[in-house]
Design goal:
single chain; 436 residues; mainly alpha; Growth Hormone, Chain: A; 0% strand
């Protein structure tokens, strides 16, 4: 089993270049994590309607509610466990819990089995995706956090897109079940195998970064190791920057959860086939994933605040475009806008949280942020389902667009810039650490 001591035997260095092998491996592992979500994205609403006879939108979106709640609370647990016991065991546990999911989705005799599978998938995602995020932050150090998060989320959401397209394509030719879910079996086998055999612990890199800050000091205004309650309150309410990032993350995943559950129904209502729905379901996360290669690095130079605020506005415009459209071209244009806006926001929010939180409690802060962010899936499922049942699919999209725009306004008014371009460490500390 990989340990901190074995990796710490030599001199530790931070930075993408100095840790290219492990960083690249974690990017690949996160792609398989993303693929597990993508395999559901284009076909589960169709399975709900065609195989289980569900008509109410709120009932169909129950799988997203289950996924969002379980993933959100596991994110928080993953951050705490990673600070206490290391990152590697949490990552491996996440993959172990993912193993039954594709088989349950293949053979589920009732919708409640699908919902249960999504609880398990949410727990798995909370453990595995959270730790790949934390491990990349550990390795990258302070200078290239935005780029590191862009690469991480690029891999994850490009895989979501490819898996969504592939399952839609397979379903159109071989049926909704079981064929599309064999992809999930492959993702689990590859992700688990790479994590067990090749991934190494990174907590010692965070400890090294903490030691090489001036005097090992915390970020201004806080103790080096605040209590879990203090970290929770800072990230949720009391720290203007952390809490602004948290509410924006919640709003982002609120609209993503609504898109996951409602877009396939909107597209089907416009008489599009499974293959076209799969292509559209893939387009949004594909643009989201690819654009993060640019936006993450951009935030390391231009700053975090206005990328986040602007990205929320672009997301709202994309959702509005889909609400106004009635055919493939309009849906595609709205999906591209939504993907671009999300790419502006997603890696930048993670980088902003890492800017503010001290390495000694950073994993816990990331866990709190990801708790609230992924509760957005649950809020999105409830809001979209209730409004869609009461007022129709179109009105549900308008409500989600309005909430997204309002969240960006909160960032613009309340958040300050978190990127500090100067290196605050003494020269002696900088000579011990190589940055990419």
């Amino acid at each position: 089993m990989p340990t901190a001591s074995s990796a710490a035997a030599g001199q530790l260095r931070l930075g993408l270049r100095a840790n290219l092998g492990q960083f690249s491996l974690l990017v690949l592992v996160n792609a398989f994590v993303g693929g597990m979500v993508g395999m559901e994205r284009s076909i589960l609403p169709a399975i709900a309607e065609q195989e289980f006879g569900l008509a109410a939108r709120a009932a169909i979106l129950s799988f997203i509610l289950a996924f969002g709640l379980s993933k959100a609370f596991t994110n928080y647990l993953a951050g705490r466990l990673s600070d206490r016991h290391g990152r590697w065991p949490v990552l491996v546990a996440g993959w172990a819990l993912a193993a039954p999911v594709p088989f349950v989705l293949m053979w589920a005799p009732g919708w409640e089995w699908v919902v249960a599978a999504n609880v398990l998938l949410g727990v798995s995602q909370g453990l595995a995706w959270s730790t790949t995020v934390i491990m990349k932050i550990d390795l990258a150090g302070p200078r290239n956090r935005g780029l590191a998060m862009g690469l991480n989320e690029f891999a994850g959401y490009l895989a979501v897109a490819l898996a969504a397209w592939a399952t839609g394509w397979i379903a159109a030719r071989h049926g909704l079940r079981p064929a599309p879910f064999w992809l999930g079996v492959a993702f689990v086998a590859l992700g688990f195998g790479l994590s067990v055999l090749l991934v190494r612990e990174t907590r010692h890199h965070a400890e090294h970064e903490a030691r090489t800050r001036p005097g090992g000091a915390p970020s201004p205004g806080g103790a080096a190791r605040p209590s879990e309650r203090e970290v929770f309150l800072r990230a949720t309410l009391t720290d203007r920057n952390l809490s602004s990032a948290t509410q924006a993350g919640l709003a982002n995943n609120l609209n993503d959860g609504a898109a996951w559950g409602l877009f396939p129904l909107v597209f089907a209502g416009a008489d599009l086939g499974l293959a076209e729905i799969g292509a559209l379901a893939a387009l949004y996360p594909a643009v989201w994933g690819a654009a993060q290669l640019v936006t993450g690095a951009w935030s390391d130079r231009a700053g975090r605040k206005w990328l986040i605020a602007g990205g929320m506005a672009v997301q709202a415009a994309g959702i509005a475009a889909i609400a106004l459209s009635a055919g493939f071209a309009g849906f595609a244009a709205g999906s591209v806008l939504l993907g671009l806006g999300t790419a502006m926001v997603y890696p930048t929010l993670l980088a902003a949280v890492a800017d503010v939180a001290h390495p000694a409690w950073r994993a816990s802060a990331v866990g709190v942020y990801r708790l609230w962010r992924d509760l957005g899936y649950a809020f999105g499922a409830v809001v979209a389902g209730v409004v869609a049942d009461a007022l129709g699919l179109g009105m549900a999209l308008w409500v989600v667009a309005a909430l997204t725009f309002a969240s960006g306004a909160v960032v613009a008014l309340r958040m300050s810039e978190t990127l500090h371009r100067e290196d605050p460490r003494p020269a002696a500390g900088r000579t011990r650490e190589t940055q990419a």
